[in-house]
Amino acid sequence: DCHPDRARMALTKIRPLGLHASLLYRRTGVNPRVVRTVQTSTQDGQTPSVEMLDFSDHKTVFKFKSTFDLLRSLSILRICSINLFVDNALPLMRRAEAILGNKIFSAVARPTFYRQFVGGDTEEELSKTCELMRSSGLRLMVCPAMEEDEGEGSGEEKYDFNTQYISEIGDMMVRAGAEKPCLQFKITAMVPADVVTKISGMVGVEYSMKELAELVHRKISGGETISLPQLSGEENHQLNTGVERLAGFGRAGVDKDLRLLVDAEYTYMNQGISVMALGMMLAFNKEKPVIWNTYQCYLKQALNTISSEVALVTSLGCCFGAKIVRGAYMEKERKLAKMKGYEDPVNDTYEATGEMYNAVVDFMLNHIATVGDACNIVCGTHNEAGAIHVAKTLTELGIKPGSGQVVFGQIYGMADQISVPLATAGFTVYKSVPYGPLGEVLPYLSRRAAENRVVLAGARREQELLLKEIKRRATYQA
């Protein structure tokens, strides 16, 4: 099992980056503020420094992109900011495919929407995407387009296939030479959503989160069969075979030095997802954070949830990993709450979500300042003010930007004006890159577009910078 003393040790020596940062935030009127200097020597004896974080330098941000790429990005982001398109994206694409035929539709969609947001569907394409990001100082976090909602379950073969498919993507990332690669996955790709939802309903009623997580842990580590009287014989079988898939997947992740990030899903199954994620943490996070869970800050209970789960895992001497995001299921959550007559779990305003995000980040950064490498987080944000807040706070707490303890994340195809300056300044930045064939990825992307409409609508800043860079190139300005 996990060792409390080892869990708090500095577990890996990662080449540190010094930081001398004056963080400049031009867009919201926040005065530039000099952040306490944090400097360490690199292996070659030099001390890299950062003079400022500037999210307005379009020439630097887009220097590795062709003018065609910039025009494509500008056009697609403008289209995606139109609610009418976002609401009807999948039917429109299906209709176009029916009219044009598969080949012509693919010839139109692949170089446009697909290429903008997807890393490819072959190992060669994923390797090229990895190399392109590496040239900008960015790292690879692959997101397979596989998930399941309640009532969508099918035979065990589907989940076996999903597990093997996602594992193979991990192999591709390693072969591509990705540095400290992260692999996102949904529990419902490996365990039936109906079973996960039923387990969600048991948390805090028949069982505590700790009791259920430890059952999953014992199944993974010792092969102990889980038998819950609230489930039917078939459901218990599905649960045990699902946990076996998670066990094999987790072991492979440890062997390949992958970071495995459990994606959040809908609130009615998130407790069950946490049961699986925390059980995997107890099994695999003995010496470093291999399994990370996701926390959605649009939820009113986000801080309570992450603080209780940190306490659970660390009390058992294991390491903790978290992906912190604002969240992507707001619209459906509100509709479900209204339809079923329970309290809306979503924060009342966008501003309240921003406050919750900062509160969760602050809690986790203070925890990391205490335990060091025993906790790692990725701060997923497309908001400049949010990125500034994380950068300032982690440097003020003395957390080294290059340590890997705190990294940033943005969606591939968006927010390069945040990603590239952060990476240039010495922070570690990942891009969440969907992977898969056109037919499977488009439905996935249409759902993400609907769920992330606030992010897409907020991409005006990025559009402004794209337009400025296109004009600069067109007029041959220096």
Layout of strands and helices, then pairs:
Layout: H1 4-7, E1 22-23, E2 33-34, E3 52-53, H2 58-61, H3 67-80, H4 83-87, H5 89-100, H6 102-117, H7 123-135, E4 139-144, H8 156-175, E5 182-185, H9 193-202, H10 209-222, H11 233-256, E6 259-262, H12 267-284, E7 291-296, H13 302-315, E8 320-325, H14 330-340, H15 350-371, E9 375-380, H16 384-396, E10 406-411, H17 416-424, E11 429-435, H18 438-451, H19 453-457, H20 460-474
Parallel strand pairs: 1-3, 4-5, 4-11, 5-6, 6-7, 7-8, 8-9, 9-10, 10-11
Antiparallel strand pairs: 1-2
Helix pairs in contact: 3-20, 5-6, 6-18, 7-8, 8-11, 9-12, 10-11, 10-12, 13-15, 15-16
- Number of separate helices: 20
Q: How would you state the average pLDDT, rounded?
A: 84
Quaternary organisation:
single chain
The major pleated sheet works out as: 8 strands, parallel, barrel
Tell me the radius of gyration: 22 Å
The largest beta-sheet arranges its strands as: 4-5-6-7-8-9-10-11
Helix content: 40-55%
Distance between the termini: 59 Å
Could you list the spans in which at least 5 consecutive residues all have pLDDT below 50? Answer: 3-51
Estimate what percentage of residues fall within beta strands: 5-15%
Number of beta strands: 11
Given the C-alpha coordinates, what overall shape results?
Answer: globular
Secondary-structure-derived class: alpha/beta
